Amino acid sequence: MEANAAIETAKHVLIVFGVVLAFGMLAALLAKRLKMPDVAVLLLIGIAVGPAVAGLVDIKADSALNQVILIFGSCYILFDGGASLRLKVLKQVWITIVVISTIGVLITATITGLAAYYFLEVPLIVAMLLGACIASTDPATLVPIFKQVPIKDRVAQTVMSESAFNDAMGAIVTFTILGVAMGSETFSLGHSAFELCKQAGLGILVGGILGYAAAFLIGHDKYDFLVEYAPLVTLMAVIGAYMEADSLSASGFMAVFVFGIILGNQDAFGFKMDEVEHQRLEEFITTTALIMRMFIFILLGAQVDFALMNKYLVGGAAVVAVMMLVARPLTVFLCAGPDRRSRWSLKELLFMCWTRETGVIPAALAGLLLGMKAPGAEMIASVTFVAVLMTILIQAPTTAWLARRLGLLLNP
């Protein structure tokens, strides 16, 4: 009986996978026809095939299968984003990236938390916990957008790098406030700063070492004996970078992002792949990232809890509107505006004000808070769902339009 149950479960999973891939291809074709990033279309199709509508896809948010898909999918998309960045550009804008990924998260969390305190009439500590949970931007959403919408390099790479770097800060602030809310600890600026530096530093170290090792084994003149297996090397190294960083209590997402940067800039370290093998690797990465994107956003749409979301829909929408229209612009102008090295133009700053999608990472944090029965966890999960839907369905489809109006498209 147990064997039969296992086989039936396996068949069900295979059917769900087939449905996700089929509808994912449909979403990709539709997005291409509409000339918009596919993440918004994938999210809508996920809602349509989920339990609330068609019931074709029903994978629980707290299931092991869902966690594997989210962790590996987010890691591979982050790796893909890192590989597309160029060190030459990052050297010009690193000050903005560091400031907006750290101080910027605090600014966004504070303003959003105050909005929640006013509109939702919850205790201030609970409001701040919500603000921290949704303060970070989402690399799994932003990386695909900038892969599909050709924005000027330094703007695209700044926003993508910010989304990778601010996850650690968002998680640290969230769990620091959670400790205060549950009475288990008091806030310590020094401890939080130390934790951030440790998580980021170890993540960068792990990603740098594995990235250099992978580049050596597939791009060295004499010792590139794994060049034919370069796609497999990326899979193993992405998993290895995340798990090794996580075992050291460091940021696994930071590790895979840095791994991607090193591998994507291997020529800067004296390595070079054969053109044919390089093209094959590029095609593999592009296809794998697309598949991961399909699974992540269709599942994310299918798992939107409308019953929970409706409890705080009006107040939650007001909080998210403040985050999008007040907190984000203030964050960008306060953190990037003073950077004389980068010399941001007003148009570039305005564009960065609009690109701050909420997605997988904040949703995962909200799920953790629900599981831990944190104060106000249901409200936080509800508003997080609202934030995911509003930012992805409003901001993602308008990215190309705004970039065109501001003159930031590479191919207008």
Report on this model:
The structure is a single chain. By secondary structure, this protein is an all-alpha fold. α3 (64-83) packs across α11, α4 (87-119) packs antiparallel against α5 and α13 (313-335) packs antiparallel against α14 (346-354). The mean pLDDT is 85. It has 17 helices and no strands. The protein is globular. It has two domains: 2-21 and 24-62; 68-406, Up-down Bundle (Na+/H+ antiporter like fold), CATH 1.20.1530. The N and C termini lie far apart (61 Å).
Helices and strands in order:
Blueprint: H1 2-34, H2 38-49, H3 64-83, H4 87-119, H5 124-133, H6 139-148, H7 153-181, H8 189-219, H9 230-247, H10 252-264, H11 275-302, H12 306-311, H13 313-335, H14 346-354, H15 360-371, H16 377-395, H17 399-406
Helix pairs in contact: 1-2, 1-11, 2-11, 3-6, 3-9, 3-10, 3-11, 4-5, 4-7, 4-13, 5-7, 5-16, 6-7, 7-8, 8-9, 8-10, 9-10, 13-14, 13-16, 14-17, 15-16
Q: Please name the CATH architecture of the largest domain.
A: Up-down Bundle
Query: Any idea of the CATH topology of the largest domain?
Result: Na+/H+ antiporter like fold
Strand content: under 5%
> How many helical stretches?
17
Helicity range of the residues?
A: over 70%
Q: Helix- and strand-based class?
A: mainly alpha
Largest sheet: none
